[in-house]
Design brief:
Layout: E1 6-7, H1 11-18, E2 30-31, E3 44-51, H2 67-75, E4 85-92, H3 98-114, E5 118-122, H4 129-134, E6 143-148, H5 166-172, E7 178-186, H6 193-201, E8 205-208, H7 209-213, H8 219-224, E9 228-232, H9 238-241, H10 253-265, E10 271-275, H11 281-299, E11 313-318, E12 325-330, E13 336-343, E14 350-358, H12 360-367, H13 373-381
Parallel strand pairs: 2-4, 3-4, 3-5, 5-10, 6-7, 6-9, 7-8, 9-10
Antiparallel strand pairs: 1-4, 11-12, 12-13, 13-14
Helix pairs in contact: 2-11, 10-11
Length: 384
């Protein structure tokens, strides 16, 4: 693959890295440099990729995120007890048009997916999620997208579907490979009721900010079932990122780092990005720590997805009024799954069941004859 669209890491960053202690991450990363060229990718698990593209953003960008400052923060962190090889592939420079940049992102996600490398995009605006999704369009299976955002990004005020909304294009593009979309951390006053109604009609999922900050572990089953994760840092309090924006409510740094770690633990996530980042020293350090926590999560993956969990688990059958539910609890990680029947649209007959990540509380609710909402929505999506 031709990587000409990737700009090497600046020599000034490399010079600063040489002054750092030998134990820090920057001394062990495989880095795309002007002198040595593109790094060897054999055994690489995570690839950091900077991105500058903001031309299709709904928001005005007055100060581009300083990727060199982020790199200095990340390179200076000490690794955990890891056997995860990380590469820094440099920065995707803006193409002549936005579509040129999108094409570069799509090609890169396609390449990394085929080589079992997780691309971690840093910077730019959240519409870059669209070309990331397009890279999955040639797959035979459907994918799940999770967005950490205070808005749904379906459209402008007064327009439920907008050309400026990346999620609108994902839903409407053909071939459509989207099975589920989930929003984590939306704030009701930033979203039209029509958007909430649209989510309900499509049986997509959404979690209000207040329901997550009281127990951030609720995001874990969602992320365990996610292929593509898109994080908008406007979902955080302005005070947590050093931003001058007026977002008094949102996730704090600890909660966002927990989300990043849960994402790393997910056996399924194969691409992710952090977008809409304020160009402030606090944000440079925060994003560096998000990459660190994601890497730590990857270190502790146990590869239970999708059906291998059945080989070492306890099985529980729960009789329900309309559908008997079967739950599985892993003896390796203690995590829970529930079987969801799939109905063939051609024959209207049930196909082989699939496993949906869930919580212990979902099992307890089922024992009390309360159908888990995630199970219900997943079942209904298979009928659309």
């Amino acid at each position: 693959m031709d990587f000409d669209f990737l700009q090497p890491v600046d020599d000034s960053v490399l010079a600063h890295t040489l002054l750092m202690p030998e134990q820090v991450l920057g001394r062990s990363l495989r880095i795309h440099t002007q002198k040595n060229g593109f790094p060897e990718l054999e055994d690489v698990k995570i690839a950091i990729i900077g991105i500058e593209e903001t031309r299709n953003s709904f928001y005005d960008f007055h100060d581009t995120f300083d990727l060199d400052a982020f790199r200095l923060e990340f390179y200076g962190l000490y690794p955990g007890d890891w056997d995860v090889t990380i590469a820094d592939l440099g920065t995707i420079t803006n193409g002549a048009s936005v579509e040129d940049t999108y094409f570069a992102v799509q090609q890169l996600v396609d390449f990394t997916y085929k080589n079992s490398i997780i691309p971690f995009f840093i910077g730019g605006s959240q519409d870059v999620t669209l070309p990331m999704y397009r890279a999955y369009s040639n797959l035979d299976s459907y994918i799940n997208i999770t967005s950490v955002d205070n808005r749904f990004d379906f459209g402008e005020p007064g327009q439920l579907i907008s050309s400026k909304s990346y999620m609108s294009k994902i839903i409407m593009e053909a071939p459509n490979r989207l099975f589920n979309f989930c929003n984590l951390g939306y704030q009701t006053f930033y979203n039209a009721q029509e958007e909430l109604d649209l989510l309900d009609r499509l049986f997509f999922e959404s979690y209000r900010l207040g329901n997550l900050v009281s127990d951030i572990s609720k995001v874990e089953p969602v992320l365990r079932d996610t292929d593509l994760l898109s994080i908008d840092l406007k979902s955080m309090k302005s005070s947590e990122t050093g931003s001058k924006s007026t977002y008094p409510n949102g996730f704090d740094a600890l909660q966002m780092c927990a989300i990043a770690r849960y994402a790393g633990l997910s056996d399924r996530i194969s691409s992710l990005g952090v977008f809409e980042i304020p160009n402030k020293p606090l944000s440079h350090a925060l994003v560096a720590q998000l990459v660190w926590y994601f890497t730590e999560g990857v270190r502790f993956r146990v590869n239970e997805y999708p059906f291998s969990v059945k080989s070492d688990c306890d099985c529980y059958h729960v009789p329900m009024e309309n559908e008997n539910l079967t739950f599985y609890k892993s003896n390796i990680s203690g995590r829970w799954w529930v079987e969801v029947p799939r109905v063939s649209k051609a024959s209207n007959k049930k196909d082989e069941n699939t496993l949906l990540p869930c919580t212990h509380q979902d099992y307890l609710d089922a024992c009390n004859q309360i159908t888990p909402e995630r199970w219900w929505k997943s079942f209904r999506r298979s009928l659309i």
